[in-house]
Amino acid sequence: MKKFIALTATLSLLISCGSSDRGELVGVKGKKWRPEKPYGMTLVPGGAYIMGKSDDDLANVQDAPTKTVTVRAFYMDETEITNTEYRQFVEWVKDSTIRTRLAILADEQGQTPGSGGIGDYAFNDAVEEGEEKSPYDTYMYENYWSLGDGDDMYAGRKLNHKPKLIKDPQKYPDEFYVEVMDSMYLPESESYNGLRTIDVSKLVFSYKWMDIQSAAKDKSKNTREKRSKYLISEKVQVYPDTTVWIKDFAYSYNEPMHNDYFWHEAYGLYPVVGVSWGQAKAFCAWRTLNKNTYQKDKKRLQVNSFRLPSEAEWEYAARGGIQGGTFPWGGPYAKNDRGCFLANFKPNRGDYAADGALYTVEANSFDPNDYNLFNMAGNVAEWTDSSYDANSYEYVSTMNPNVTDRANSRKVIRGGSWKDVSYFLQTSTRDWEYRDSARSYIGFRTVQDYMGTQNTANGG
């Protein structure tokens, strides 16, 4: 016992002598942090508002009774995610897929970084004979990176991003590089008009997320087992379904939209469509990964995850601080005092062009609401994170209400679209679609939690 007390006293003396806190409770000093507004986003101050239909429920759906709720502050994309922004995601996945395939083939051929040809793209984590690695890299390679994960023996391997990918077939460095690139395209027999098309089924994004809601309710005392039980792995094909322009409208000529809408630069600033709820969630995970990779390289603190908004957050943001507004601009009319339409929708039966647009319009078209958010009504309906339940307003919490039911495949969409009547443009109108469905009139935008709670506003 005396030895223990002596050891404790010695440790205490060493700790006190080695610090500059003078024995006071000063807290742990971390990196300086300053709030940074994410690019392309606007801050929606937290506050209370009356969620639901304050006016008559003309459609008699009876799924949105009024309820006063409070939401915390968050950042939200000023516009819907555009084709060019989603293409950045697709290109990143394509680049990573090609580099992974090159690295695997280089590994199978015994090639190492710097050996020329496909070897330049070999995994960048192997500990070569005579090469000095840090103790950390050596340990991680021997115990994790070289062992794989589950069914993927190459999971966790470090790709070499230094050499640029060679896109000109005449400049491919060796036959192994040709083999990998050929595997990324559809067979020659399936090409036409002299063009070979990328096999979009190869563009798969893998990520993991923690089901915190379910884990928190688990009463198991085995923390490690609980964590692994609720760590969910996802694999998502990321390329949007361009055939929605054909499938959504029978006996209709929409082939030009199918052929050009997603990839052609003429539509770059238009909202992406043909994206399922799962693909929208994958985009959020990638955007978080992409930003935090940059933060890590710059030795900065990581940012909060990007995610889909909850249904309550979306409605609060759409109202723009106008408590009882029917639409994001307030009053009950879809035209301004000059007779101009205030959103992109279907004003009359069969007349899609009366508002000046046949299909979608650029994501920053029309005037924004008072939170500087564009097209919170019309253009494309938007996925939310919430599961749809007609009775959910009766039981959800009044603080940051949300329903996340993994067993419920119906997900809430909000805002109405270019092919909807004005009823669906109302801030309080609820609608839904199946999570694995993709439509020519559904897109999304992302949000990010605001760090801190002091930024609040009166919802009225």
From TrEMBL:
TM spans (from-to): none
Keywords: Lipoprotein
Keyword Lipoprotein carried by entry: yes
InterPro entries the UniProt entry points to: CTDL_fold, Glid_motil-assoc_lipo_GldK, Sulfatase_Mod_Factor_Kinase, SUMF_dom, SUMF_sf
Molecular function per GO: formylglycine-generating oxidase activity
Keyword field contains Lipoprotein: yes
Pfam families reported in the protein's UniProt record: FGE-sulfatase
Domain of life, per lineage: Bacteria
Domain Sulfatase-modifying factor enzyme-like: from-to ranges: 40-99, 241-447
NCBIfam families named among the record's database cross-references: GldK
Protein's UniProt name: Gliding motility lipoprotein GldK
Gene: gldK
